[in-house]
Amino acid sequence: MTNKFNNPIPSSSSLRVEIRSERRSAAPAEGRLAASLAHEINNPLDSLLNLLYLMKAEAALSDKGRYYCKLAEEEVQRVSQIAHAALDGFRETTGPKDASVPNLLGSIVDLYRSRFETRSISLNTRYCLDGHIPVYAGLLRQLLSNLLLNAADATPKGGAVHVRVSKAREWSGQQRGGLRVTFADNGSGIAAENLHRIFEPFFTTKGSGGSGLGLSLVKDVVQKHGGSLRVRSSTKPSRSGSVFAIFLPAA
């Protein structure tokens, strides 16, 4: 796997799957399970937010400590929003709002950078200058976090992950203008027999370490934004890796 975004995996050994915009409603059993879990975690989340507020007010924190505390508070609030979204049947109460996708992704990268550093994984970023489009910011944060952490989990010690936000046009169809968000890693890759199942709810290749819900949620969020998703992956020895590319329309 090379370090170039335009061809990070050799096409001769890669497999590709594409998800287009469509609506998918959760099965009744899945919806009940999500609502039950969301209800149970709401109270401890509220308590954790209160503790973070008290810690900021009472503790003599350094500037960096306050920054990390602020990021932690934002992440807890994001989990709370996810829980409320599950209770509401994955419906947003407001429409999409203009936001900077590079800034949104940058804050997520900052939050998890230490995870990459402890495993000596090179984390390379490149963002376009003007990346404002209408998005559901809470849901998009969830999508971006999932893909970044999946790349970290798949990449061996000393490997590399590349993250990019660029202006682009849709691959096919109306060829709308918008943004493309790309996550590329030189990890183990996805086996051919699993590639078309990775977006199924509860399907996971991580064993007991995975819930099988992360990429299912990624698919739902892409579709909610009217976007599309492409995945390319190779398990070829010495040239393995995966690329997840998200297109988000500007209108």
Walk me through this protein's architecture.
The protein is α+β, with helices and mostly antiparallel strands and 251 residues long. It folds into two domains: 11-24 and 97-249, Heat Shock Protein 90, CATH 3.30.565; 28-87, no CATH class. 43% of the residues lie in helices and 22% in strands. It has six helices and eight strands. The strands form two sheets. The chain has a six-stranded mixed β-sheet with strand order 1-7-8-6-5-3, covered by helices on one side. A two-stranded antiparallel sheet has the order 2-4. β7 (228-234) and β8 form a beta hairpin. The protein is globular, with a radius of gyration of 18 Å.
Main features:
251 residues; alpha+beta; Heat Shock Protein 90; 2 domains; six-stranded mixed beta sheet; two-stranded antiparallel ribbon; 8 strands; 43% helix; disordered N terminus
Report the CATH topology name of the largest domain: Heat Shock Protein 90
Output the strand order for the largest sheet: 1-7-8-6-5-3
Shape: globular
Low-confidence stretches: 1-7, 9-13, 23-28
CATH architecture verdict of the largest domain = 2-Layer Sandwich
CATH superfamily membership of the largest domain, which one?
Histidine kinase-like ATPase, C-terminal domain
Structural class: alpha+beta
Mean pLDDT: 79
Per CATH, the class of the largest domain reads Alpha Beta
Number of domains: 2
How would a textbook summarize the main sheet? 6 strands, mixed
The helix content is: 40-55%
- DSSP summary: helix tally: 6
Number of strands: 8
